[in-house]
Amino acid sequence: MTETAYRLPGTGQSGALVAGPADFLALLKPRVMSLVVFTGVAGLLAAPGTLHPVLAVVAVLCIAIGSGAAGAINMWYDRDIDAIMSRTTTRPIPQGRIAPDDALCFGVVLAVGSVMVMGLAVNYVAAGLLALAILFYVFVYTMWLKRRTPQNIVIGGAAGAFPPMIGWAAVTGDVGLGGLALFALIFFWTPPHFWALALYRSGDYEKAGVPMLPVVAGPVETKKQILLYTVLLVPLALGPVWVGAAGWLYGVPALVLSLAFLGFAVAVWRDDSDLAAKRMFGFSILYLFALFTFLIVDTTALGAFRIIS
User: What is the three-class DSSP state of 223?
Assistant: First the structure.
């Protein structure tokens, strides 16, 4: 454990911080990291070709650590608004358990280390994409877009769409149509996912001065945009099939899940309460996990079939 003198956010008092392992783990945003790792693994397995199991593990670890590094730097920069919003007040920095400088140093070291190891152990294309994802999340989304435009999630969502493309590049050494299809899937999933959350958390965002779409344009426009992006997502969810990165063992469930997701979007459009938005947000997480689960099953089964034949 480390102990640091630090002035607590929003107060005139200072105290001694005792940061434990759980606090540093929280800086890595483990829930977000789990989704990042899962989609990265799916991209790695879906890619044509093979990668030594040890190098595959190294690649996945680098993706995980890079994601955590970006999360730690994000918490360092957003510590002022995290102290205001109810869903983020328990984070280590607003609670005064970790000093901001320690969080920044922790994030930078992990970011540099993950990119260096990816480049030296796997390949430089995957390392370059990992570096781009971290830089995009930190500088483009966190520091530039998040507090300036309601399109923060649309453009900034690209950062979260990189992991499967990084996994793909770890195997192939390039991006490829398959990697781009997986990128597009997550890119267009991100706005309806976050806007559903923002609909019933709009008061938090307004209080913190974050111009999320419901705060700036109102709930009606937000619901329209959720519906539009979900409609576009239906054919994009089948993108891996169109480009030959997956078969219909993935494609059929993907179509069914996407139509169900569209049903949730329609319910949000028609419902004036927060209940439909909460349900859509919950389903959106299950939806992405399920899509990439079926992608892994499909590509694993296809690989086994090729071995047998």
Answer: helix
> pLDDT for 149-208, tens place per residue?
988 888 888 999 999 999 999 999 999 999 999 999 999 999 999 999 999 998 888 888
Packing angle, helices 100-121 and 124-135, rounded to 10: 160
Supply 137's token pair. 């999340």
Residue 8 has pLDDT above 60, yes or no: no
Cα–Cα distance between 64 and 58 in angstroms, integer? Answer: 10
Average confidence score pLDDT of the chain: 90
Closest Cα partner for 135 from 69, 179, 194?
Answer: 69
pLDDT at residue 3 tops 70: no
Whether pLDDT at 2 is above 50: no
Report how far Cα 54 is from the mean position of its chain's Cα atoms.
Answer: 25
**Secondary structure of 41-80 in HEC code, one letter for each residue:** HHHHHHCCCCCCHHHHHHHHHHHHHHHHHHHHHHHHHCHH
Which of 94, 98, 106 minimizes the C-alpha distance to 65?
Answer: 106
Domains annotated for the chain, with CATH where assigned, are 18-174 (1.10.357.140), 176-302 (1.20.120)
